[in-house]
Structure formats: structure tokens, C-alpha cells
Specification:
about 100 residues; mainly alpha; elongated
Length: about 100
């Protein structure tokens, strides 16, 4: 299932490359199911996350355990990333099902 989601994210990214994503709003799963033909109503539907960079960074402030922060910093350093880049990469991977 994880591979299906990952491949779906990639397909959406390729489909929307260069497109105005406002033309493709997210769909409500209940509405999508209601629009299916009767024969297809038992189909399995999955929500696919799509995150495109907005091109604008913002400063955030959050609380984290000191030992966890030290582990984050060490992992980021091993990958030659800043703390922010490491956290954003991890969050993006989590949202898209990337390994």
C-alpha cells in the first residue's frame, strides 16, 4: 500500500508539473464515492497527499524534548543538512509515504 501511495504522489506531481494547482482542488472522499457508478461503489479509495512548495519560507517555533532535539541535530549533521531542512524533509517523507 505504501508503494501505491508513493507512486500516486509521483504521478500527481508529474501531472501537475507547471500547472496552476488552484484548478485542481482537493476532493472530498464522500463526494467522490457518491459520484461513482453503482457497480464501483465498493471500490477502495485512498487519499493521496500533495504538497507543493509555496516558494516562501516562514519562521516557526515549537517545543521539543532536549534529547530528541539533540538526536535530530546529530542526524541532520550526518546528512549535511540544517535542522530545518532535516525536519522539513522528514515531514514531507511522512506525508507522502516516502521511505
Amino acid at each position: 500500500m505504501v508503494e501505491l501511495e508513493r507512486n500516486s504522489v509521483e504521478a500527481i506531481e508529474l501531472f501537475l508539473d507547471g500547472e496552476d494547482i488552484e484548478k485542481f482542488p482537493a476532493s472530498d472522499m464522500t463526494a467522490v464515492r457518491a459520484e461513482l457508478d453503482t457497480d464501483d461503489r465498493d471500490a477502495m479509495l485512498i487519499a493521496i497527499p500533495f504538497v507543493r512548495s509555496g516558494g516562501r519560507t516562514v519562521r516557526v517555533n515549537f517545543t521539543v524534548d532536549a534529547a530528541t532535539l539533540a538526536a535530530i541535530d546529530a542526524a541532520a549533521k550526518r546528512r549535511n543538512l540544517s535542522r530545518s531542512a532535516y525536519l522539513v524533509s522528514g515531514a514531507h517523507n511522512e506525508m507522502t509515504g516516502a521511505p
